Amino acid sequence: MLFQGKKGLILGVANDHSIAWAIAQEIMNAGGVCGFTHLPDRPDDERQRNRRRVSQLTDKFENAAFLLPMDAQKDEDIRSVFDHTAKEFGKIDFLLHSMAFADRDDLGRDTIDTSREGFKLAMDVSVYTLLACASAAKPIMNPGGSIAAMTYFGGEKCVPGYNVMGICKAALEAAVRYAAYDLGPHQIRVNALSAGPIRTLAGRAAGVEEMLKLYEYMAPLGRNISHEEVGRTGAFLLSDASNGVTGEILHVDGGYHAMGSPGRLLDKVQ
Predict the structure, then answer these.
(1) 171-214 pLDDT, tens per residue?
(2) Is 192 annotated to bind ligand?
(3) Is residue 248 part of a domain?
(4) DSSP annotation of 20
(5) CATH number reported for the structural domain that contains residue 192 in this entry
(6) Who has greater pLDDT, 95 or 202?
(7) Do the annotations mark residue 49 as ligand-binding?
(8) 178 is known as an active-site residue
(9) 97: domain range?
């Protein structure tokens, strides 16, 4: 029960395929109590589809304490969520940031053709929100607390098709390092989890299907990763088991990131 007595926030669950949900399940199954946010629903959406997609997951867990709407581009929404969290929990021990967005039109363009407004939107949602949420968490996070973000190899190397989001992930990883420095004196850690391709809502938008075979052939383990593997590693970064780790980008990709040549993929093309 690694999370017994621990409380925290999970930001970015979209549905049951979300990496954030895989991590949250690991935490709750290990005794942790989680608060959740969801994308706000449109005023004319009587079915509240965004909320319902998440609530049908969280309703099954007694230690899912609350579910609140949050537009991470609005400072007042962030303040409201963290104020509610402070009232409900007092202090928190972990924060998972799993939010990213780029306009589909911009993702489909060559990177150099990204629109100015699309670039600002992608950077705001995918990068700035980590800093904003880390700042909001600082006053209510216990010493020894942990913040984790989600990144991808496309922030380290050029992955054609990932385009503007690759630039966002590079900036996010830099933000992790600077936030780790800022929060270090408060004994709060900040890390990022770099997962290999996995079938999620964001993954499908970024062309994950085309990547799965490539990783299977190139990764040293010779296979793709699972939601459960990413969930366990994300929970590790948010737990006391990783107390000495901060400013780290931890890869869960079967070793793909370590390769400097196509490796066994060459056997398939010769």
Answers:
(1) 999 999 999 999 999 999 999 999 998 866 565 555 667 788 88
(2) no
(3) yes
(4) H
(5) 3.40.50.720
(6) 95
(7) no
(8) no
(9) 7-268
